[in-house]
Specification:
The complex is a heterodimer of chains A (about 290) and B (about 290).
Chain A lengths: L9 E7 L2 H5 L6 H11 L5 E7 L6 E6 L2 H6 L14 H5 L7 E5 L1 H12 L11 E7 L7 H11 L7 E7 L2 E6 L4 E5 H4 L20 E4 L8 E5 L2 H12 L3 E5 L7 H23 L11 E3 L1
Parallel strand pairs in A: 2-4, 4-5, 5-9
Antiparallel strand pairs in A: 1-10, 1-11, 2-3, 6-7, 7-8, 9-10
Chain B lengths: L2 H8 L17 H8 L5 E7 L5 H7 L3 H10 E5 L12 E7 L2 E2 L3 H13 E7 L1 H5 L19 E2 L9 E3 L6 H16 L2 H19 L8 H9 L9 H5 L5 E4 L2 E4 L9 H5 L5 E2 H4 L2 H12 L3
Parallel strand pairs in B: 1-2, 1-3, 3-5, 5-7
Antiparallel strand pairs in B: 4-6, 8-9
Helix pairs in contact in B: 1-13, 7-8
Classes of the chains: A alpha/beta (about 290), B alpha/beta (about 290).
The complex binds flavin-adenine dinucleotide (FAD) and iron/sulfur cluster (SF4) (3 copies).
One iron/sulfur cluster binds next to helix 9 and helix 10 of chain B.
Chain lengths: ~290, ~290
Amino acid sequence: MVLTLGNYRQVLAARTTDKEILKNAQDGGIVTALFAYALENDIIDGAIVAGPGQLPWQGMPMVAMNRQELLAAQKTKYNISPNMKLLKEATRSFGLEKVGFVGVPCMLQGLRKAQVYPIAMRDVPDKIALVLGIFCMEVFPYQSMVQLVEDHTNQKLESVSKMEIGKGKFTVCTERCAVTAIPLKVTHKYEQPGCHVCLDYVANLSDISSGSVGTPDGWSTVFVRTKKGEAVWNGAVAEGWFETQPIEQVKPGLDLVTKLATEKITKNKKTLEERAALGVGKGLRNPYLST
Amino acid sequence: MGLLSSIKKGMGGEEQQMPPTSPPAQTEEARREERATPDRIRVGHVHLCGCTGCVVALTDIYQGLFKVLDDYVDWVYGTTIADVRRIPEMDVALVEGAVCLQDHEQIQDLRTTRLQSKLVVAIGSCACTGNILRFSRGGQVNQPQHESFAPISDLVDVDVHIPTCAPTPQQIRNTIVMAYLLLKGTDDQKALAGRWLKPMMDLARTPFYQKASFNTLMQEVINQGLCMGCGTCAASCPVRAISMEFGKPNGTRDLCINCGACYAQCPRSFFDHDLMEQHESIMELIQGAMAPK
Ligand SMILES: Cc1cc2nc3c(=O)[nH]c(=O)nc-3n(C[C@H](O)[C@H](O)[C@H](O)COP(=O)(O)OP(=O)(O)OC[C@H]3O[C@@H](n4cnc5c(N)ncnc54)[C@H](O)[C@@H]3O)c2cc1C
Ligand code: SF4
Ligand code: SF4
Ligand code: SF4
């Protein structure tokens, strides 16, 4: 059975105390601060992140080997960054023995499958040291994002300083602080089709996952999921990398996370059923052995 | 820690007592006798038209191989590792290489293997999909008439696939551990192993997979509207035939050797949510099972 919020050991609200990281973070700077902590403490040798591509706001996988490179990869790119592409390469050309990885839920499905079934991942499964997940409702192909920003919000992609999805809107902020928002019903048709069969919202397969939903602006909701994740999280908190609050004490809280996760999974399960019956006595393939 | 007890531990059960070890045997004959315990499974390696890369990948489990040979497996056949002439009865037969349709001896070996083995495992892409041998037209020295090479499933039923060129030591390791559990484990262990093995068994029975190439990924994932651009396929390709263009795989089909790795590794070819939720304990279990004593 697909779990709505996944297995977890702790859930809380948090943001980093590192001012430099927080300044450019998408939300509470959880991902970048955790990798910076893990690099400093030799938990990882480097991390696969979504760095800047050749085109504005294009997500391009990169192996960040130091703090500067982690900072260069901050913020959410609402287009596909195929981070799994670098997983094997990170252990080869980059020589990493302890790999950090961040990805949306589907990438972590690829990553855990690569560990449990390392069919084509020679010497990779035992080198994965820290897997961070970010919540995800959907992603856009690059061209969809161009159309949303340039046609619908009338901004030049080059001048955008942040994009955000939340509170029912797709919001674009420019460097000169002009803010334009469009309702999500406009954006739906531009979504990547492969997202419509996705049954994970809060990165169930990560060691630690986080996202903006559930907590106030500038904070993040954090799920600490595995033994490994808990050791890293407790270590970072003990060293003062994060300020935290019990999730019960923040608004809107876990109920909203649960609601959105349930909506996503329910809708996409329905899509799977419709696909299976798309033709006449025939339909499309369902990749899942259990749902 | 023995495999069974490490599994029990991984699943929250009690640790099992190790059986008392018998004193060292005197003669080679006696030692062989002692090694044939009922708790080991009988495994062999049958070599058809393959480059030996698959069996080398097996030895690349390094110390793990000693663990396997000490505790889990009686190696009963294999021209590279054991000196046995006739194909014996086996629990698991690892078959490397495609079968040459002009080599009658080889066809006979494959038939005997199927008839005498509980599980036939196609190890490596030559056995699973034909791989690079699909491009053969014969004409090589010694046997120029040997021109047609087929995946073994064209001639016999295959139970499990371990695709890729070369297969990875870690996937071979995981398969051996799971096959052992399936045959010798408790009911819980059998259930877990069966679940893990199922997709590998499905691949072995999927006609389109036996003809796999980059096109399979295209037809069964991308053309089906399932691809979400993770890039796993690009990382999987042994000949780097796949690049990611704007978040979607693009195959240079002239480079593709028909190994089927991209499709098998893609999370949208098959994915079991229930099993994968247990990823941490499964990894601990495999690592525990392979840990030196
Ligand atoms: C496509 C997408 C959809 C999302 N949808 C939601 C949602 O519905 N609800 C929610 O609460 N949160 C969502 N998030 C997560 C949220 O936007 C933040 O990424 C998350 O809260 C981390 O912020 P941070 O301040 O901790 O990280 P930061 O310190 O800003 O670092 C973010 C990290 O994420 C990486 N990253 C950025 N874009 C991508 C990408 N496309 N693929 C893989 N990695 C990437 C960066 O390289 C960086 O390492 C989504 C993220 C993405 C990429
Ligand atoms: S919705 Fe699912 S498939 Fe789409 S990008 Fe997010 S995690 Fe991946
Ligand atoms: S591995 Fe599968 S889902 Fe991922 S990019 Fe390749 S085809 Fe798409
Ligand atoms: S594209 Fe690469 S991984 Fe896929 S079948 Fe061809 S050679 Fe194998």
